[in-house]
Amino acid sequence: MKKLVLILAGFAFSTGLYAGEAKEVTLEGTGMCAKCELGTSSKCTNVLQVGKGDDVKTYTFTKNVKHGDYFCQATTPGLVVKGKVEMVNGKMMLTASSVEEKEG
């Protein structure tokens, strides 16, 4: 029985089925401040909104980008963000490895 549990646990970890695993993604959306634009935070917090209409998803950055770049006191459409996303306490948290404006 122990062997079966170990095999199943190993399979779950190797295939990414366990909860909380960060996934590498590339997202395109609008950068904004959760405090200044959305009013959902008590302090300036970078967020990226992806999608349109009723299908908008909000990703909260784990670490803010330099204050004023793309996010605070305005919205910046057309951002391309690469990084890892994981669900933490019901929020999609984004650890960005790069943030840039979409070319073109």
Features of the shown structure:
single chain; OB fold (Dihydrolipoamide Acetyltransferase, E2P); five-stranded mixed barrel; globular; disordered N terminus
What is the domain tally? 1
**Strands in their spatial order, largest beta sheet:** 1-2-3-5-4
Low-confidence stretches: 2-18
Give the overall shape: globular
Counting helices, strands and paired strands, the structural category is alpha+beta
Strand content: 35-45%
Enumerate how many helices there are, as a single number.
2
Radius of gyration: 17 Å
Highest CATH level, the class:
Mainly Beta
- List how many beta strands DSSP finds: 5
Main sheet characteristics = 5 strands, mixed, barrel
Which H/E pattern describes the elements? HEHEEEE
Structure explained in plain terms:
The protein has a single domain (21-101), classed as OB fold (Dihydrolipoamide Acetyltransferase, E2P) (Beta Barrel). The protein has two helices and five strands. The protein has 104 residues and is an alpha+beta fold. The protein starts with a helix and ends with a strand. Helix content is 18%, strand content 43%. A hairpin with a 2-residue loop joins strand 4 and strand 5 (91-101). The longest helix is centred in the first third of the chain and has 14 residues, at 2-15. The chain has a five-stranded mixed beta barrel with strand order 1-2-3-5-4.
Please give a quick description of this structure.
The chain has 2 helices and 5 strands; from the N terminus they run H-E-H-E-E-E-E. By secondary structure, it is of the alpha+beta class.
